[in-house]
Write a structure and sequence with these properties.
Helix content is 30%, strand content 22%. The chain is built from eight helices and twelve strands. The strands form three sheets. An eight-stranded antiparallel β-sheet has the order 4-3-2-1-5-8-10-9, with helices on both faces. A two-stranded parallel ribbon has the order 6-7.
Amino acid sequence: MFVEGTDIDIGDVVFFKKGHNRSDAESFHEAVAAVASEDVIHTALLLKNDTDQWLIHATPESGVCQESLMNVVEKLQPESFEIYRAQVPQIVRINAIQWAKSKIGASYNDIFSSDMCDSEGKEAFYCCQLVTKSYEAAGIHDFCPSHQLNFNDSNGKLLPFWEEYFQKRSLSVPQGISGSHPAKLIRSKYLKLHFARFCMPLVKFTVPKTVDKALHFIRGARVALTSTKHFDVYQPRNGELLTQCGCADAEVIDEVIKDASKAQQSWAALNAQERGKILWKAASIIR
């Protein structure tokens, strides 16, 4: 499993980040990312059971459906995915999932209409709309920050993809109407990062904007440790409290030491030139 041993739960929200060197087949997701401030291309709700991680999400190909996290990662080929915990009572998360499950079989909202209908008038949802409406149905009416649909690039020019997309449907581009976007939803005041995993080689390492996203990095993933003990992290220049960090327990420490021991054996087998390349890359990332 992708997230084995991690404290994930029903109703968690999964965000998929844009991968590099994507093929033309993913032009739709490229266009989604191109109109946002962050490279978030898709979002879904986590439906967890004891043996696997399943998602409920809306896709252009299948509409609202249930699919394993592994399959979604294989299809999207994201650079990374992040799992956020909604800071609401568990019953709210359960109710949100139950509402989302009731919409399985609905179409994909190909025209991004606010009335949840597609170009044929059928009940439909786009990915972020499904997540947002699920939590709204559970009583959280401001789950997603206010957002107006945008189909322009950073210079305010309509992207050719979207111009052609809506021309094929004989519709005007719904620029500026009320809606949602994964890059806006990820900033929700209700969401807190719980887990993150890189799925592709770190060709481009993005430095986290907040320190709490980088405090624990285990087996190629940023993780939020659940612990009864925490310590405060302060900004040394002004004494500002930056975050609270969960303390690793003995089990986590043991796993990290085992990984480090294996890594040491691999490191010992490298020659000086190979080690130099790795150190140079590490230095460039830190800078």
